[in-house]
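Write out this protein's structure.
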Amino acid sequence: MLPQRSVGAESVRMIELGHPWIIADAYTKKWPAGEAGDVVELADPAGRFLATALLDPADRIVARILSRHPMRLDRGWIKKRLERAVAIRRDHADLTDTDAYRLVNGEGDGFPGLTVDRYGDYLMIQLYCNGWRKHLKLVTQALDELLAPAGIYEKGRPQKTRELEAEREDKKYGRLLTGTAAPDPLLVMENGLNYRISLERGLNTGLFLDQRNNRRDLVKRVKGKRFLNLFSYTGAFSVAAASAGASLVTSVDASATYMEVARENFNANRLNPKRHEFLLGDCLAVLDDLAKRGKVYDVILMDPPSFSTTAKSRFTTRGGTSDLVAAALKILKNGGLLIASSNHQKVDVADYLKELRRGALQAGSSLDVVALHGQPEDFPYPVTFPEGRYLKYAICVKGEGM
């Protein structure tokens, strides 16, 4: 018999609507002491069973729904959910010439607060809920049994990740849980292109898997074009553009470490980095300099992190996007493409388009959205969990304004 926790009317409503999170409130503050990883039954004030959940008492999300039925969190349950996740990728995701993709997408695959990514012969687990740590061995055992990877890593998600990422790009956050150690860097393939990633160093591996389909789309749009990649990170979009025959690829990022990895990614695909440009600096400052020098581009991509800090400026999706759009439009030719992307979960599509509108009005240009993409098929999310539809990727044509 699992321990029971009572939830208030708002949580009852959210559970019945299928939302997987229980947010801390006056009811949860009255719960008996529990530990992260405890499995409990949630009930309404009258004692009616609602769901089975995983506790994380110290977090804002104090419990995550595992099932709306009574259950045991054991290896059999985990393996059954993993088998379903594998089937979704096999049946619905285009993974042609790709061995780097998301295998388990948290709430979208019935593992709220836990993700598993595949990188070649290795798997990477990330925990966004401390409740899973107690059951991590069960997860790795089920993954080993089902997929027999060469090794399984965990990459930690420490608090204050924004500040940490700004300070140390090479710090080791990953650790090997089972199997043999991976080469560092490890070479993986996406859409037939090679990318160097690290399962140990950095908060991220060096390749954002949720942009795979969008990089494939970019390839069709840049042949013979001048392409500017803002917040280029390790250059995945830049490599895709150069491989597609862009006449010039200009990559801009504030990190010298990431810029060096970008050059290495060019070399890994037999693309000469010397034929293209790598500009180190704050993106807004670089845009201003490019405008002063009279530079003009055919396609500009901006894919900033939700938050970033450099010595000169501080960027946030809310408030920063419109200024970035306005500055980029100054050096984008009429009829050219502005591709604006954001992974900020708390900014929905409608609000994001408002930021693009503000930027266009500020620049005195028009912007027509010709396509609006999200994350690929290996990043599923329940229709009852709108937060799961986080990626916005708007492809816009610049006009002269009204």
